[in-house]
Protein 1
Amino acid sequence: MISMQCIGCGAEYSINDVICGCDKCGDLLEVRIDEESLREKIEKEEWKLRPISVWKYKEFLPIFDETKIVTLNEGGTPLYKCEKLAKEFGIKNLYVKNEGANPTGSFKDRGMTVGVSKALELGVKAVFCASTGNTSASLAAYAAKAGLPCIVLVPAGKIAIGKLAQAMMYGAVVVAVKGNFDVALQMATEASKKIGLYLLNSINPFRIEGQKTAAFEICDQFGWQTPDRVILPVGNAGNITAYWKGFKELKALGLIEKPPKMVGVQAAGASPIAKAFAAHSDTIEPVENPETIATAIRIGNPVNWKRALNVLKESNGAALAVTDDEIVKAQKLLARREGIFIEPASAASIAGLKKLVENGEVNVDEAIVCVATGHGLKEPEAVVKACGGIIEIDPSIEALERVIKA
Ligand SMILES: *Cc1c(COP(=O)(O)O)cnc(C)c1O
Ligand SMILES: [Zn+2]
C-alpha cells in the first residue's frame, strides 16, 4: 500500500489524510511508494514511449483519480549540452537542465501540478503558501486552472517583480508580511492548521513527489544512464530532497545502476546547510537575517534541512556556498556563452560548479548536470543592474558608428 510516513518518528499515515506534518512529533511526512505494485506497472514498457513530462511518470505519482489531474504541460524541459561553458571551466561533459522552461518559469510547477491535483482529490476548499516568489507564481497558476481560491504570503519588499506580477495576474490574494521568508513560512504553517487552508509549501509531501520527476527526466534524457553529479541551488532544500528521492526510486526498481552525487549550492549570506556540511555537523544553525541577491534561496532556516544533510551523506555529495558576485558572474556567463537566461538563484549551481572545479574536486571527465531552476525574466531589476546602463544616442548614423567603434 502507498502511504505517508514521518521522517522523525516513523508514524504512518494514510495517503488521503489532509495533513502536512506528523501529528505526533511535528516532523515532515514523506510518501512511500508501493514498490511491488509499481514494479508490476513499469515492467510493461509502454510508459517509456511517452514523451517526457511530469505525467509520463504517473505510475510513480500518488494521484489515483486521473480526472482530478490539473496540468499546464509541465516538465519535459530541455537538457542542454554546454560545450563552450565546459571548455571555459576545463571539463568535458556539462549539461544544463533548464527548468525555466516550465509553464510559470520555474521547477515549482512540477510540484504544483501534483500538489494541486491532490488538493482536488482531497476536496480541499482553498490553497495557501508562503513564498519567496516562484512558489506563489506557480501555485496561483495551478489554483486558477483548478478553480480553487489561492492565498499567498510573501516577505514584504523582498519578492522579485516578475514573480509578484504572475501571482497577481493569476488571481491569487497576495499578502505581504513584514518579515522574511522564514517568518512567513512559520506563519503559514500555523495559519493553515488554524484556518484550515491546504498548505503547498515544500513541507507538503506531494510537492516533493512532483519534483522528483526532474530526476526521472534527466535519466531518461541520458538514455537511462545517470550523470556523475547533479548540482542545484538550495533554499528550503525541498528540491534536492526530491531529486534524491527520484534517483533512489529508479535505483530500487533497477531502472538505473548508480545514482549521481548530489551537490547543493547556497548563497553565502544564507548558507546554513553548506556551513553544517563544512563542519561535519548533523544539525544546522539557522541564519537569523539571510541576505543575498538570489531571492529564491534567501532562506535562513530551511525546513528540509534534515533530509538535505542526509542526501549529501547518502549520495557522497557536498554542499558549498557562493557569493553574490560569483552568482551574478555565473548568470552572465551562462547567458553569454550558451544563450540560457536564468535567475540569480539558479546561477548558484553554475557558480558552485566553477568553484568545485577550481578546488580540484571535480574530475574533468565527469558528466555533470547543473539545474537551472528558474527563468531569468523573473528578476529583471537585478539583471538591469548587473548589466550596466544602456547607451543613448542622437538619431544619427555618425553617432551610431561612434558607439559601434567604441
Ligand atoms: C524554490 C527555488 C529554489 C530553491 O529550492 P528549494 O526546494 O527551496 O531548495 C531555487 N531556485 C529557484 C529559482 C526557486 O524558485
Ligand atoms: Zn513523527
Protein 2
Amino acid sequence: MPEPGDTVLARLEALRGGDLPTHGGRTLAYVYDSGLAEADRVGREALASFGSTNGLDPTAFPSLAAMERDLVAFARPLFHAPEGAVGTVTSGGTESILLAVQTARDARSDVESPVMVAPSTVHGAFHKAAHYFGVELVTVDVDPDTMRADPGAMADAMDAAGERLVLVAVSAPSYAHGVVDPVAVVAADAAGRGVRCHVDACIGGWVLPWMAHPDPWDFVVPGVTSLSADLHKYAYTPKGVSLLLYRDPALRRPQFFASADWPGYTMLNATMQSTRSGGPLAAAWAVVAHIGADGYRALVATTVDATRVLADAVRGTEHLRLAAEPDASLLAVACDDALDVFTLSDEMGERGWFVQPQMAFRGLPATLHLTVCAATAGGVDDFVVALRESVDAAVAAGPVTVDPDLRAAAAALDPSTLDDAAFDGLLALAGLGGSVDPASAGGSTSAGGTVSVPKRMAPVNALLDVAPPRLREALLIAFLDRLTR
Ligand SMILES: *Cc1c(COP(=O)(O)O)cnc(C)c1O
C-alpha cells in the first residue's frame, strides 16, 4: 500500500524538527531570511512549479534561458559590468568558483602546471577547485591587523609563479572576516601580468551594491575579469543559485563543454551539471523580480544597521573583540583567554542562537562567525542579552583545555598512515563516537563505525582546533563517511 501523501509530508515536517531554523533570524550562518513572507511564498511556488523542467537543453525549455538572461541583465549594472559582459547561472558559489578556475586553466592550455594566487582568507571552494582541476593554489598571508589581502605579498607570489600563473582571486568580502580585499591594486597587478582576476563576491554580491563602500571592488576595476555572486545568500532566494559573470564572451568561452563522442544527444553544457532543475533559477528570477532593487536597498540598510549595532555590542563587551572591522554584513568575534569561542558558541546555542565557530588558522585567532541578515535585525537586542549572558557563563566555565599529551599526539599523527579502526578510535576520543540516534536518522545504523553529534560541541571543537589542518580534514572526512553509511 502506498503511504498517503499527507502522512509522508507530515513525516517530512517531523524530520525537519531536528534542523536549525531557516527562518526567524536566529541562525547566523547557512541560511538567509529576508523576513518578507511574500518573497518566501513567491520563491517557494516558483521552485515547485519549475522543479521538473530541465536546463539540459535551453532550446527545449526557452523559459529557462530567458530567465537566465534576465538575471544577468539585472546583475550587470549592479557590478558595473560593461555592456558586453556575459554570465551563467550556476548551482551555488562553489560551482561558480570551480567554473571560474576551470575556465582560467583551460584558457591557458599552453601552461603545463598552472598556478593561482589568492589571499589565505579565500574561500575553501578555491582549494576544492585546485584539488579537482590540478591547479596549484598559492595562498598569501593577509595583513593580520585588517585581515585584508596584502597586495605587495600577492605581487611577490605572482612573480614567483611567473609564466605558470593563470588566475588571481580576491574576496568582496571574505567569508571568515567580512572584509573586502584591496581589489583595485591586486587586479591591476594581475592585469599587468596579462592574467585573469576573479572577485569572489559570493556573499557580498547582493549587499555591497546597495551600501557605501569606499573602495572599488567590482568590474569598475579594469583588471577584474570575472565575478561570482550567490543569489541563494543575500538575494534571499531558495538554495541552488549563483551568478558567474565575465567581462566579455571570450573570457567565458572555455567554460562551455560539448561532447559528440557518444551515440546519444550531443552533450552541450554551460555548467558542471547536465540535467539541472529549472526550479532554483525560476525561484531566483521570481524573488529578484518581486523584491527588486529598491527592496534590496531597504533590506541592505536594515542589515547593515543591525551589523553595526552588533559590532558595537561586541566592542562594548569585556573579553570580546572584533577580529576585523566589518565591511559589510559579516562579523568575526574573537575573545581573550578568560573564555573560548567554542564554549561561547554552545552557550549561544543553549539560548536559541546559532553562531558558527571558526578555528584558528596560521596565526589568526579562532572566532565566531556571524552572518547578519535582514530578519536578524528585529532581534538584535535579544541577541546582545544572550551574548552577554553567554560570555558570563563561558568565563565561569573557563576555557576548554586539551590535554597536552593529546595535543602532542595529534601534532605527531600522520593521517595518511591511519586505517579505519584508527579513525574509529580517534573519533571516539574526539567525542564524536557512538551510534546515530535512530529517531533523528529515520533508519537503522549500519555495521562498522558509527558517529553521533554531541549537544555541547566545545570539547570536540577545541580538539579539532589543535589538530593540524591535514588531520582535522581526515577526521572530519572519516566522520562524514560514518554519518552517511
Ligand atoms: C558561500 C561562499 C562561497 C561558496 O558558496 P556555496 O554557495 O556555499 O557553494 C564562496 N565564497 C564565499 C565568500 C562565500 O561566502
